[in-house]
Amino acid sequence: MNWRCTRCGKPHAENDPPCDECGHNSFEKAVVRVDEEHESGPRSGGAPDADREPIPSGTVETGPDYVWACTNCGREHVRNTPPCSRCGNPDLERVEQTYEGLERDLDTPSWFEVAKPYLPIFVIIGVIIALFATGIVSPTILPGIGPPSPPDAPGQHSEASGMDLEAVDRAVHDRLEEERESAERRTYDDGLAAYAEYQNRRLVVLEFEDRTPDGVSADEFDHSCEAEVQGAPAVVTDVSVDDYADESGLAEDIASELLSRYGDDIRTGFDAEGVDVHVAPNGDIYAFYAAC
Fold it and tell me: Which of 12, 47, 68, 288 has a 20 to 30 A CA-CA distance from 142?
């Protein structure tokens, strides 16, 4: 035997891979290498075989690789083991293995080629981030970002009898400031006002509708308080918003109700406050006061 498999060492009469034993596609000449011949001398029998070309030390002559290809679909198999694993065809033929298209298959596209189809999406995301970063659009418009939205409540929360109820909120604050010493003055905090609005509408819903809005914490609102926020509801009854000529008159009665209920807690001990006024379906005036 002049040839042997370079993987399992099985001898073969001819250089006709693949190996019958393991299917490997590489044979080598089963001869004594040049370096071995120098060390141990010629093999038994005398002179070395002049017709046989020795293989240089450290190299192996592999020859071409062969595979078994399906005559139907072209699927390549390492060994002649029909039927075809892809289509079930019983006929396989031995062909020399080539590597055409390998360079193309291994060619890796650049990051720009990969990202190019997604460039419009990246541009849109960049514009949105820029709008948020510059303050043109508030992040609070996104779901789950910003303070909770107040529940829908029956009645009026923005305007009643031609009066701006948000202006009434501020007028209540101004009226309460008149009751305080200069050292006890409080700033009007929009975050506290938003918290007061949520709690006020929630009270109206609980009173006039058969549902329970979610409860909230003052910490969910963007206020400036470091201390705990205190809330104080008040309801002005036996009056009608139609009886008031302007916002200041209504604010006067709401401030009086708060002072009557909470006394010195309204005058001293806090640094900031917020107010919300809501007119209920029955005409009662609901007010919620928050301070910290």
Answer: 288
